[in-house]
Design a protein that fits this description.
single chain, 303 residues, alpha/beta, Carbamate kinase, eight-stranded mixed beta sheet, four-stranded mixed beta sheet, 39% helix, 23% strand, globular
Length: 303
């Protein structure tokens, strides 16, 4: 690439640098981007670049595959009900050990080696994420009542106390948050990282909430990428089961974040190196952007 072309690329990104300067962005980091060594390095570089052009990134990470591997080595069998990990006390100990003690510290180290100043946290630090127990219901047919299933210490976000994050951001640190909350009597709760990311983005009035996923973005009923989606279209996508699996909590979280003041949500393909930079600083972008529009009232799926 010629020097002039490189200069033109930088100049074309200038409007984005200007618009995003000083803005908070919450990034949910997960999927293949957390496993492939080249993608891990590219992610860390993207985060550091964002920081150096004036953006304030906050990272929330998952770690399901890593938890499964450790459980299997310990002779424990991972169990899931309605897509949620059954989390008894022993499993919760493993979840916290892996997410907070291993995965979180690796991400912090990657960012610091790339030139950033990252700090690892869990939702228990500073009572940042107050959790309440999640109730799971299983559908057993029209003639049967919903079955209530106890899946242990799986939680949902009841409240966010963002003070510790705000303090770190003001001091130019990059917070890296493990999705473990604190519940009644100080007990740890395992919380879906997508939901944590959305709750933090809302509490911080973030400019953007960005999900790195292992898919291109949200697909329609013809399996074609939806480049732009509005909040009042999300409910139908879920109820009609056009979207399924791991995309459902992302869209539920996106809905809540947007109606709570987050400006825009992006779901992008984390399998592409430097996908964050491509999405933020080029006209083409990647994946699906979700914008606020007048939301439909009601909708039990968002409770």
């Amino acid at each position: 690439m010629e020097v002039r072309q490189k200069a033109q690329i930088l100049i074309s990104a200038l409007p984005y640098f200007r618009d995003f300067y000083g803005k908070i962005m919450v990034i949910k980091y997960g999927g293949h981007a957390m496993i492939d060594e080249n993608l891990k390095k590219a992610f860390a570089e993207d985060i550091v670049l964002m920081k150096y052009v004036g953006i304030k990134p906050v990272i929330v990470h998952g770690g399901g595959p890593q938890i499964n591997k450790v459980m299997e080595r310990m002779g424990l069998k991972p169990l899931f009900v309605e897509g949620q990990r059954v989390t008894d006390e022993e499993t919760m100990n493993v979840v916290e050990m892996v997410l907070v003690g291993t995965v979180n510290k690796e991400i912090v180290s990657l960012i610091n080696r790339a030139g950033g100043k990252a700090v690892g946290l869990s939702g228990r630090d500073g009572n940042m994420i107050i959790a309440e127990k999640m109730t799971v219901y299983k559908y057993k047919g029209e003639d049967h009542p919903l079955e209530i299933i106890d899946i242990g210490r799986v939680g949902k976000v009841q409240k966010v106390n963002p003070e510790v994050l705000i303090t770190l951001l003001e001091k130019s640190f990059i917070p890296v948050v493990a999705p473990v909350g604190v519940g009644p009597e100080g007990l740890a709760y395992n919380i879906n990282a997508d939901l944590v990311a959305g709750a933090l983005a809302s509490a911080l009035s973030a400019e953007k909430l960005i999900y790195l996923s292992d898919v291109e973005g949200v697909k329609d009923k013809h399996n074609k990428l939806i480049s732009t989606l509005y909040v009042d279209e999300i409910e139908d996508l879920i109820k009609e089961e056009i979207v399924k699996g791991g995309m459902v909590p992302k869209l539920k979280s996106a809905f809540k974040a947007l109606v709570s003041g987050v400006k825009k949500v992006h779901i992008i393909d984390g399998r592409i190196a430097h996908s964050l930079i491509i999405e933020l600083f080029t006209d083409e972008g990647l994946g699906t952007q979700i914008l606020k529009k007048k939301a439909q009232e009601g909708g039990d799926i968002f409770e």
